[in-house]
Amino acid sequence: MLNILLLFYGYIIFFYSLALITSYVALLIMAYIYSSNYKQWSDDYIKHMVDSTPYVPGVSIVAPAYNEEVTVVDNVRSLLRQDYPNFEIVIVNDGSKDRTLEKLIENFDMVEVPYDYIEHIHCKPFKRLFRSSSIKYSKLVVVDKMNGGTKADAVNGGLNVVSNPYFINTDVDCILSNDAIYHCIFPVLLDDSVIAVSGTMSMSNGATIENGEIVELSTSTKPIPLFQDLEYKRSFLIGKMGWSCINAMNNVSGGYGLFNLQVVIAAGGYGSESFAEDMDMLFRMIGYCCDFKRPYRVVQIPHNCCWTEGPSNIKTLIRQRTRWGRGLIQLVFEHSRMLLNPKYKTLGMLTFPYTFTFEFLAPMIEIIGICLIIYLALTGGVNWDTFFVMFGAIFLFSVMLSSFVVFYDYLLGSSYHKSNSYALLLLAGLLEPIFYHPLVVYSTIRGYYNYLTRKKAVWGDMNRQGVKKKKK
User: Fold this and answer.
1) How many helices and strands, by DSSP H and E, does the chain display?
2) Residues 331, 334, 338, CA angle at the centre, nearest 5°?
3) Structure confidence by residue, pLDDT tens digits, 391-404
4) Tens digits of per-residue pLDDT, 117-143?
């Protein structure tokens, strides 16, 4: 009986791996088609089209901050440099325990103002609202509220005070390109059914930053940020770009994304208890549009709009990915009604099944596979020739996929000023399956366990290191 089960599991793994490889190839092709079509719009043309539009939509940038006193001033200055005719910055101090709020007050001439607003989306109570007394910082609003335990609650707090029909959800430690809003609002001008736009993101670890502005781009030489850099490029340049080609995106990154405020509010806002805030919000928005038969599109743009600092050590990485794993299993349970439901179009019939099969189930399948290999090795039941052939084939495909992403990014010419950064990424592609991927699998399983056991968790700051900063 055991031999039959092992044989059956072996066939499952074979066809599972074959389906995964096939899906990656399909996403590669769709990503290439989509980005090639998008290249017809030059940066100058996009800027001209936006500037010449009689009624340019206003955009609010919402950035939650929790214990960010070290970097908050430079990063807010970076946000204020946006080259766009009509925007505002809303910083949400989500119950920081350090001097984040004091830093904002001191450096941007913030004064407390009375406020009276309609709570469109429920969140933890506000304490105070601040605006700048200086014309120079007139676009800046600071919300001081009680900590809600998740980034989703913090964003909801910001959405209750924004004054524009579109908003960008980002993190206060992110650095945006000066033309980021131009590029994200452009798809909205082309098609008013666009409800969300995802901008391409890269890692800022290893970059040289001066007064909140990147002056030299290079990848980190530390292994953990280096692996994440490669992972980000694979996610944006293949995954999101490919799904965007057929309007099947299931995630707009919480680091940088533009959303239609009306649709977000109608969908109930961000789930305050959600640890998959970005993916959960998009599921809510698409669910609302499908329930009320409203046309929608979600698009990914190839322009690099944002640089974010990721975990620089194993401990912080595990904490982050544990939270992501918790968010993923939470999402699967809360939106299970959409799975294989034709009412929810490509999300329900294609993207969600893909997410469930190749993202949610993958860590569990890998853990079971490792346990079986160990058992069979101890009992002499492994055909090592077949094992090494299959392992080699999967490993080579992983390296080829990573290499394609690196070379494609190099051709786009948008990431680094130093070519040796690409050599480091190629090296990361060789080592990732062996050293980095097991950490991600472990952290995800840990997140599943924490969710199922209802272990309390809150969002917070990372122990940020590895970004070279210069002061004038």
Assistant:
1) 17, 13
2) 90
3) 898 899 999 999 99
4) 778 898 999 899 999 999 999 999 999
